[in-house]
Amino acid sequence: MAKRDFPSKQEIESAVKAVLDKEGTERKLLIERSLTRYGYSAAELKDRSCESLNTKLKSLTGVVLNEMLAAGSLVTTEDGRLAPPKPVQEQKSGLTRTQRRRAQRKRAAERAAKVPKYPDSPLGRTLESADKKFQEYKAGKLQKDKYLAALRRSLSRAISEAGGEFFEELSMKLLLAVYGSTVKRNELTAGPDDNGIDGKLYIEDPAGFKELIFFQSKTKLNEKAYVSVKVVREFLGVMVAWGATKGILITNSRFHRETRTFAAKRAELLLIDCTTLLDMMFANEVGVRSSDGVWHIDDELFLG
Questions:
Q1: pTM above 0.70, yes or no
Q2: Domain containing 225: what range?
């Protein structure tokens, strides 16, 4: 089968708008519906492993959803769904509708002609800012400790801005790097019917012992936000119901003290907060790269 290009941003936006309910659609369901309009068959999208086409398309669609939200072409309803913005009365101006459209096309052409290194989006601006710090450090204009602190802040912010779908994929990549060859199979299960489980890893150690590990990724837009104990209790319940031997909760923020106390009593539960997450990313070179001994963000991973 001939290799096809991924859908463009414009194609993804068109797909999203085509399947979006006027009253709002739950984010994961919206992504699932959008995937059906990219021209791929059900067989091509069946594989849900970390490096699969399905996973990459979900991550890419999630990034575009975030950009649409930032641009105002999507809004979040009170109950957390995504919806088209309500129409507003067009403001009067001295230009006719045709003239306004011509001006819009001209501005769009000018933006396209610039071909910037980073997209004009919250994620793009974060990556661009991190790159400037990288260049300053290489030029000797920034001390190492200040650069690394800025890099960690940018990483945390980029994870939030890349969206929940990206964070699920990033979490799987990180766990695959940690467990290495003991992983015999992996599956990203996130979707409208995921029962609170974002991914599964089927592990077999050298002695032949087998384990089923579930993980859940909790993305917080505010890195000072807490993951409540309710989330952990529900996660443990799903683990027990589906026979998982271990469970890992990963967040780019922090866990409430009550959450940590509860998890400390359960040997099968592991909590990974933002600090530990970033430490693991550096230790396994996931999401970051070392160039001549200097760490910087892996732009290619974040931008797909």
A1: yes
A2: 177-272
